[in-house]
Amino acid sequence: MSLLRSLGVCLIGTLITLSAAIEKPPERDCTLRLSWWVVPEKEYELYLLNDKEAIPLSLARLSISQAIPYKGKAEVVIAQKEISQELDKKSGKPKENWIPYATFKLKAEDVDVAVFLLPEEGKDSAKAKSLDLNPTTFPYGSVMIVNYTQGRVACNLGGGVFFAESGEIAHSPKVFAEQTETPFALAVLEANGGQHSRSQRRTALAALDSNQYE
After folding, report:
1. Cβ-based burial of 28 (10 A; exposed 0-12, middle 13-18, buried ≥19)
2. Cα-based angle 206, 158, 169 (whole degrees, multiple of 5)
3. How many H-runs (helices) and E-runs (strands) does the chain carry?
4. Most CB atoms closer than 10 Å: which of 64, 73, 99, 150?
């Protein structure tokens, strides 16, 4: 009888050990592309916090070429690091405190996400605007319009016109399979326009009121 009890204790102990070794999967596992919408005058040392580490960020303006693997919580935190005068009891080194600079939430279906940081005037913080770049919804060779104006945006791409309402995102119905040149025009209340080359790439165009972020 005592042998059975001993075996029971051993089995329970083994199960507890195995359970502790199984890591809980992250809430979100995707790619992030972080960028300034407009670069603030003040310089910031920013980090992306995930489940295991703080990733230092080097952000450019309106550039989403840098892909960062993210495994962490659904609410993403971009933070500043503050060195405390208080010492850590284990290491004896000054403690590091993380002060949120910007936060945003990821959807369960997010795979590839562009995030633009819009600094808030007079504050050490920024708003974050995220865009879904999943190739299934935003395929290569297509064009996306992000309308941050108060009016309706019309885009003429190769003779085909599509619209983006205020505060909304719109995708061109045309998808280009090879490099080509095509007429392009963009209008929003006050006319804006341009000529662009389209190839095997994805292009996101953002429209905003002329008095913003000058």
Report:
1. buried
2. 30
3. 1, 17
4. 64
- Percent of the chain that is helix, strand, coil (3-state, to 5): 10, 45, 45
> With 0-12 CB in 10 A as exposed, 13-18 as middle and 19+ as buried, what is 186?
middle
Phi, psi of 177 (to 5 degrees): -95, -15
The tokens describing 214, both together, are: 């000058």
Closest by CA position to 202, among listed 109, 35, 64: 64
Give residue-wise pLDDT tens across range 123-171. Answer: 999 999 888 888 787 877 888 888 877 778 888 887 788 888 887 888 8
Token output for 66: 């840098």
Q: How big is the CA angle at 153 (ends 150 and 158), to the nearest 5 degrees?
A: 170
